[in-house]
């Protein structure tokens, strides 16, 4: 999903249940402001959300990010057994 200022949530087939609230919240931010990612919890059938990451490999966990151009937050997932 693409957000203002080139900010993207990469959900890996998941979805955000509060997407309308999230889009309104993030598009009101200015460049240089910080976004608290902990309030955006995606869901994915058969998986538990394991947190946001700054990288595709899920090695750099993040709880917040600064609004700037071309930022991506990757959703990490753990398979439910």
Termini separation: 28 Å
**What's the total number of strands?**
9
Let me know the largest β-sheet: 5 strands, mixed
**Helix percentage range:** 10-25%
> Counting H and I runs of at least 4 residues, what is the number of helices?
1
Structural class: mainly beta
Run of helices and strands? EEEHEEEEEE
Task: Give the key terms.
81 residues; mainly beta; five-stranded mixed beta sheet; two-stranded antiparallel sheet; 41% strand
Explain this structure.
This protein has 81 residues and is mainly β. Helices cover 11% and strands 41% of the residues. It contains one helix and nine strands; from the N terminus they run E-E-E-H-E-E-E-E-E-E. It has one helix spanning 19-27, and strands spanning 2-3, 7-10, 15-16, 34-36, 42-43, 47-53, 61-62, 64-66, 72-79. The protein has a five-stranded mixed sheet with strand order 1-2-9-6-7. The chain is globular and about 40 Å long. The protein starts with a strand and ends with a strand.
């Amino acid at each position: 999903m693409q957000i203002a200022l080139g900010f993207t949530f990469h959900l890996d087939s998941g979805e955000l249940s509060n997407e309308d609230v999230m889009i309104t919240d993030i598009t009101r931010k200015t460049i240089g402001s910080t976004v608290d990612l902990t309030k955006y919890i995606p869901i994915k059938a058969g998986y538990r959300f394991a947190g946001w990451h700054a990288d595709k490999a899920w090695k750099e966990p993040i709880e917040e990010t600064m609004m700037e151009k071309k930022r991506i937050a990757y959703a990490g997932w753990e398979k439910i057994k």
